[in-house]
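Dear colleagues,

For the upcoming journal club I promised to circulate an example of a predicted protein-ligand complex. I picked one with flavin-adenine dinucleotide because it came up in last month's discussion. The inputs are reproduced below in full, followed by the predicted structure.
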Amino acid sequence: MSNTTDGQGKKAIVIGAGLGGIAAALRLRHRGYEVTLLEKQNQLGGRATVYHRNGYTFDAGPTVITAPFLFDELFELFGKKREDYVQFVPLYPWYRIVFADGTHFDYGGTLEQTLAEIRKIEPADCDGYLKLLAQTKKIFDVGFTQLGDQPFHTFWSMAKCAPQLMKLGTWRTVWQMTCKYIKSDKLRRVFSFQPLLVGGNPFNTTSIYSLIQYLEREWGVHFAMGGTGAIVAGLGKLMEEEGIEISLDTEVANVLVGPPPGRKRSGSAGVAFGVMLRGEKRMFSDIVVCNSDSPYTNKYLVSSGNRIKWTDRRISNLKFSMGLFVLYFGTTRPYPDLAHHTIILGHRYAELLRDMFNLKKLATNDLSLYLHRPTATDPSMAPPGCDSFYVLCPVPNLLGDIDWATMGPKYRDIVVDELEKTVMPGLRECIAEDFYVTPSHFRDNLNTLHGTGFSIQPTFGQSAYFRFHNKSEDIEGLYFVGAGTHPGAGMPGVLCSAKVLEHLL
Ligand SMILES: Cc1cc2nc3c(=O)[nH]c(=O)nc-3n(C[C@H](O)[C@H](O)[C@H](O)COP(=O)(O)OP(=O)(O)OC[C@H]3O[C@@H](n4cnc5c(N)ncnc54)[C@H](O)[C@@H]3O)c2cc1C
């Protein structure tokens, strides 16, 4: 990496304080930029904000930490230690996967522990799992180690590594790759659902994303004591210590593009020279970094006259990730038998995903759910003797015609019924606190196009060079980080997008 003080005397504005925006702000500050971070919400974190209700703490979004070193790096930039701000603890199991017949699979721990779980379902798949793991390591070595923090802003950057990616069979989907090695239907689900964690359908997500499996195997799955909110608080403290100016409750209305004040326009490309806030206030800077949802930002914050590549038509042709219905609830009693992370799979798999991603049809029975019980690891996240939870149900994004204002309360009951039937008998009687968010929340509060949970899908045609570039193709001085950009959604992805930004500067 080049000179770490080359931003001295320059100003940077970062739009959005999601984890990608926070990481970008810190990396820019480390390079010497004077950084202002503007956030629409009244809290830092974006999807990783935190809700406090009557003694219960609920992380709003991400909870599964798979690449702890990416957080450590942000503190190390300033000669500090992450452990002095927030503690991580390893989990076992990483996830408990509960099947529709009531049996379960504890995923994680040592290789031997995972093989023992596979043996209980299909002994012949132990060998296949080892081969799958070896393949995911090869993909990891290229997709994460070599390319995860490298820019893909020119066609040449893609062409250079295309042969390597092709050789690894990344034109295959995650599902196809899993089926190549694993025979049991149950285990195929266990080893293919990971793209859902980053907004992809395993049936059309490029197998590059199977590197998530290797990431988990190499570093395990961790949890931050106090929840992900404690990570965001730690990063907030670090930003304050390092002199980053943070402005909450501040929404950017558009990016200012043209010749900077006092300069003539050079050539045809526009230059980003600041932002206009809601309320017409203008703020000037040398560069603008957008962490707000990339499709939304291009469509609404950059005027169409300044966009050559990302026209409204091209944006509307993208494949968007699914939406999320998330119910947060606190109980008056603990559920000690529930793991920290539980994935409850219904009978349907391919059909459910097809309905959700392609047909935009909402499932009202036989749901698949992800249940988070942080109090399994940190009891301080609920009053004594109680548990706090969230349950996440993937649903169609707002391109479907679901009226969430009427469907929301009904869906809350459907989800509670499903939990009662599967892993939480008698739940209804012991809910002390509950509220939910629907795709409308993602659209209205987080400015996400079509209310998606994870921006655009990680298909082959929407990855690397084909995803939103981290450097604008049309406008000088305009950069992008976060879920919609390379390398993609999820905490590791958005933290890496800030590293890509640093490479580009
Ligand atoms: C329920 C849920 C569970 C998840 N679980 C996991 C998990 O366990 N592990 C994992 O790795 N990932 C998980 N993810 C994915 C992960 O949370 C996201 O991919 C990641 O946090 C997104 O970060 P981001 O940098 O793209 O910013 P975002 O979190 O999307 O934040 C963008 C910010 O920009 C702000 N903004 C938008 N427009 C403007 C504007 N005009 N002006 C000012 N501010 C603006 C928004 O308010 C928001 O705060 C989960 C996501 C969700 C929703």
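Two points we might discuss: Residues 319-444 form a domain with the Guanine Nucleotide Dissociation Inhibitor; domain 2 fold (CATH 3.30.519). Residues 15-21, 38-41, 46-48, 61-64, 197, 251-252, 291-292, 324, 326, 392, 446-447, 453-454, 482-483, 489-491, 494 surround flavin-adenine dinucleotide (CB under 6 Å).

See you all on Thursday,
B. R.
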